[in-house]
Amino acid sequence: MMRTVYFKVIFFFFLLIIDQSLAADEDGFFYNDFKAAFLTRDGAARIADNGLLRLTDLSDKYQTGHAFYASPLKLKKGSVSFSTTFVFAIASELGANKLSGQGMAFVIAPQRALPGALPNQYLGLFNDTSNGQSSNNVLAVEIDTVYNIEFDTIQGPHVGIDVNSLKSVNSTDPAYHVNGESKQINVNSGEPVQVWIEYDGIDKALTVTLAPVNTLKPDIPLLTLSRDLSTIFLDDMYVGFSASTQTVLTYHYILGWSFKIDGAANALNLSSLPKLPTESSSSQDTKPNLAADSDQGFTYNDFKSAYITRDGAARVAENGLLRLTDVRDKYETGHVFYSGPLKLKGNVSFSTTFVFQLHLSWAPIN
């Protein structure tokens, strides 16, 4: 009898913790690294062992990389507001403050992927047919390092607010305000930069603010836009990042990310963000490890940095354990797929091995 009572107490306490974390997921999220982040990724996007999110690398030209929070968010209803902050870094193969390519963007889109999106000046957002279409239902804040005569009005690196098109509705040079003075930011210096993007659903005003990391958020935003975003969004929207490269090989990194609906995004703990690789370690990473992760096969002893897409209840724990379902709800599904396509047609052979374990929610786990 005592054993039964003890088990029930533990069981209900566990469910209480799960319910609280689920409520937090519905309103926003906070990632000081991406080791166990609930993300879907495609293209060149990877998560390093230290939790650093890398959207593109130096392995090839004309890359795209996407990473989206895997659950949809309700951003259309009523006068909903939102706030997000993230830290990024852009590092060119040519060195700090040299030519890089191409750029990256924070994206709000109606799906967790951007099919058909092109690299180079398209930033992995659109292609020559979709660019400018109102049916895109996409809002993006781009951080572009290269002037493009087709889309840009600023010759050089720039920050822009994009609505369904790469022709920004508002753009300017990367800068921040301090003590009444505007100071330029070298966004392709390889050094981390923090961004704050905030939307007031009552005033219908969007603001974008930048500053070097470890600098207080400036009181004056870099960009503003007066627009009712509910006219752009659908009922379910996804938030994430896109990046692309061209002939100059370039890393695009995200170090940490926080997002909140109807409130201020939680402040990132800047001192505990994952470290950027040194120049020497970056140069060693220019070629992918084909034996471990390629169109020929892969090996994962844990899933911390696995090149996979997930949906439903699927999560990767901090220790690298892949969990397909949990005890949050009945009738769950969870899916995990290797993100790269494999050629299996014809007389091809293949082999796979994996280790799994099942736990019933009413059975104690030792």
Automatic annotation (TrEMBL):
Residues 29-274, 297-358 form the Legume lectin domain. SUPFAM superfamilies: Concanavalin A-like lectins/glucanases. Gene3D superfamilies: 2.60.120.200. Pfam families: Lectin_legB. Keywords: Cell membrane, Lectin, Membrane, Signal. It is a single-pass type I membrane protein. GO terms for cellular component: plasma membrane. It comes from Papaver somniferum. Residues 1-23 form the signal peptide. One of its GO terms (molecular function) is carbohydrate binding. It is found in: Cell membrane. This is Legume lectin domain-containing protein. Belongs to the leguminous lectin family.
